[in-house]
Amino acid sequence: MDFIFDPARLDALAARERAAYAAADPFPHLVIDDFLRPEAARAISAAIPGPRDDIPWDRYAATGFEMKLATSREEVLPETVVRALHELNSAPMIRFLEQLTGIGHLLPDPHLLGGGVHLVGPGGHLGVHADFNWHPALQVHRRINLLIYFNEGWKPEYLGDLELWATDASHRVRSIAPLFNRAVVFSTRSDTFHGHPAPLATPEGVWRRSIAMYYYTASRPAEEVREPHNTRYKGMHLD
Question: Which end of the chain is less congested by CB atoms within 10 angstroms, N or C?
Answer without folding.
Answer: N
